[in-house]
Amino acid sequence: MSLRPDLAAIAAHVAPGSRVLDIGCGDGALMAELEAASGCDARGMELDGQLVERCVARGLSVVQGDANLDLADYPDKAFDYAILSQTLQTAARPDRILDELLRVGRRAFVSFPNFAHWRTRAALMFGGRMPVTRALPVSWYETQNIHHVTVEDFRDLAKMKGAAIERAWFFANETEIGATGANWRAEFAVFELSR
Amino acid sequence: MSGGLPQFAARMNAAPASPVYRIPHPLPLDSGQALEAAQIAYETYGTLAPDKGNAVLVCHALTGDQYLASPHPITGKPGWWERMVGPGKPIDTDRHFVICANVIGSCMGSTGPASLAPDGQPYAMRFPVITIRDMVRGLVALLDGLGIDRLHAVVGGSMGGMQALSLAANWPERAARVLVIASTARHSAQNIAFHEVGRQAIMADPAWAEGEYYAADAKPDNGLAVARMAAHITYLSEAGLTEKFGRRLQDRESKGFGFDAEFQVESYLRYQGSGFTRRFDANSYLYITRAMDYFDIAEEFSEVPGGGKLADAFAGTQARFCIVSFDTDWLYPTSESRHVVHALNAAGAKVSFVELSAPHGHDSFLLEHDQLDRVVKGFVE
């Protein structure tokens, strides 16, 4: 099974044997990869009970919970990595989630769709309506993405939170691209942070 | 059986009795007392591996027993979790050696208030008040007797889940996996209140006779039946009751302006109550409900009565946990399971938690539920 590109980038850069918390772990694809290939001790949190059930049925340790509320129970630096993939933009308060991520994990991986990708900009500029694109396929009224964010917005937030950007990866057409002009060119971004 | 249960012995003599393990030492109790010559009746399913590493202990609920996946000797009904335990079932007896033991305090062959005390008379109310941890002490003694150092998994729903948590907290090296379904780490005021109604119903029955009814013709069946009726309501959801019975009348076209069981739900509860008295001892009901009411794992790990942090009970545990709740269970609601999960997270334990959707309230864990099956199978495998 091949991982989504942002998850593959994360999986490739988590140190083997690490303790990992995957927030919004979905069906557990990344956790399973980290446990099988890197010998990690992976834990997950997922809001959707049916996805949690699938994770547990495949032997993963996943808690049904809401990242907005339930991260508070984890001790400081309980994990080597806290991972938030494609979830930041759905949070009630992304800034607070980022704080929690950097509290429970020594390092954090965050991936999100970049709202400043040229397709999105073009759709808004010329269409005059909230963009529905390959990366953001759901209409404004039913999308879970309530806090759209751009690569530059995220850099600003990280700076504001005193987090250092250790590394970053950018993707378009399911392929990694360079960092140059990423705020225009990237459909998805992955950042590795520390504080 | 050792002749300790005259009223059950008469009914059970046609059925093969469970194997019994005689605990070779006095069983120490939380009260400070000790139970001499206690015995544990149990059933096993499957084959113990040569390395004894495939044992799964399933703990039963308040009125359950060791007949997990084999017919009940009194009622003749299938085992209480036969849909979950057996060859090819989620808890697969082709792979695992599954043990289910009657808890001490109960009445299906393990030592309880109906058993004979050393003086040859039934204990009745002389039986010491026990706790959930005392029940688990008995189970651990049985595991010692079977030579099982470390369980592949301990599994329980409701009071069985309390035992699983108690085992994990007090004997952390004894189980690699801990599966807790529709349960709690402490009894709430509401839980205690419902139990008190049941106990008072039993003790208000003149036939209870301060617990000394074993030699009498009459048993406190009326009180025990009322206790069961009240408790049974707490095992169901309002929506489930409405769906099953609504306001429908039983075997009649119109109201009778009397106090027979006119509504279907009344008839059902009376049936549940009277059926229960055939297979359960009223004093056991008092003792086991009391044990559940005393249950508060955090307190056990605290110097202060009523105090303590639940996370401390699980500090350093190496076991994997899976906690399951049901969205319509108002007896041990999801919030109680979350409380356990939060503590396990704080303790750094490997924990899974899922709230399953089911219409039938607390009893959902005993009923058909494909998602539960998949969770149990995936976790226990």
UniProtKB/TrEMBL annotation, chain B:
<feature type="active site">
    <location>
        <position position="329"/>
    </location>
</feature>
<keyword id="KW-0963">Cytoplasm</keyword>
<keyword id="KW-0012">Acyltransferase</keyword>
<feature type="domain" description="AB hydrolase-1">
    <location>
        <begin position="54"/>
        <end position="273"/>
    </location>
</feature>
<dbReference type="GO" id="GO:0009092">
    <property type="term" value="P:homoserine metabolic process"/>
</dbReference>
<protein>
    <recommendedName>
        <fullName>Homoserine O-acetyltransferase</fullName>
        <ecNumber>2.3.1.31</ecNumber>
    </recommendedName>
</protein>
<dbReference type="GO" id="GO:0009086">
    <property type="term" value="P:methionine biosynthetic process"/>
</dbReference>
<comment type="similarity">
    <text>Belongs to the AB hydrolase superfamily. MetX family.</text>
</comment>
<feature type="binding site">
    <location>
        <position position="228"/>
    </location>
    <ligand>
        <name>substrate</name>
    </ligand>
</feature>
<keyword id="KW-0808">Transferase</keyword>
<keyword id="KW-0486">Methionine biosynthesis</keyword>
<dbReference type="GO" id="GO:0004414">
    <property type="term" value="F:homoserine O-acetyltransferase activity"/>
</dbReference>
<feature type="active site" description="Nucleophile">
    <location>
        <position position="158"/>
    </location>
</feature>
<feature type="active site">
    <location>
        <position position="362"/>
    </location>
</feature>
<feature type="binding site">
    <location>
        <position position="363"/>
    </location>
    <ligand>
        <name>substrate</name>
    </ligand>
</feature>
<comment type="function">
    <text>Transfers an acetyl group from acetyl-CoA to L-homoserine, forming acetyl-L-homoserine.</text>
</comment>
<dbReference type="InterPro" id="IPR029058">
    <property type="entry name" value="AB_hydrolase_fold"/>
</dbReference>
<comment type="subunit">
    <text>Homodimer.</text>
</comment>
<comment type="pathway">
    <text>Amino-acid biosynthesis; L-methionine biosynthesis via de novo pathway; O-acetyl-L-homoserine from L-homoserine: step 1/1.</text>
</comment>
<dbReference type="GO" id="GO:0005737">
    <property type="term" value="C:cytoplasm"/>
</dbReference>
<dbReference type="Pfam" id="PF00561">
    <property type="entry name" value="Abhydrolase_1"/>
</dbReference>
<dbReference type="InterPro" id="IPR000073">
    <property type="entry name" value="AB_hydrolase_1"/>
</dbReference>
<dbReference type="InterPro" id="IPR008220">
    <property type="entry name" value="HAT_MetX-like"/>
</dbReference>
<keyword id="KW-0028">Amino-acid biosynthesis</keyword>
